[in-house]
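All the exercises in this workshop are built on plain-text protein records. There is nothing in a record beyond a sequence line and a structure line. A learned vocabulary of local backbone shapes supplies the integers on the structure line. The question running through the whole workshop is how a given chain folds. Here is such a record, shown just as it appears in the course material:

***
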Amino acid sequence: MSLEFRAKLMQVVAIGFMLFSILWALAPYVSINLPARFILDLIDWPLGNLSAELSRDVKWLSSIGAGLLVALSIFLGGIVTPAILANDKRTIKVTKIAIVAWYIIDSAGSIASGVASNAVFNSIFFLSLIHISEPT
């Protein structure tokens, strides 16, 4: 896969994360949080809690998580994408370490919390990010 194509894929991932985080960030706003409730219900497969009101803790932690995901999307699009184009192996290596750390902590915590389906979603993103960021 060429550097240019890998960089474009990383940009697509960054945009996808940004859109996901914007919808997730709606969780605390009861009158407009249907997209966030759908995302949370989808990740906690199978579907079935879409109509449930979100707890204070879910709203609060969704705000934190969405904020961190926005930061990650900016990092991927603004730092990692140019690093891929420049074949900057050091930045790509640190990015891969960060991706592995996220994957382990998020997936282990999801499984321990009884939401193993999130670990499955994480695995898809993890494999995609690792493959895209693979240096040539």
About this structure: The mean pLDDT is 90. DSSP finds five helices and no strands in the chain.
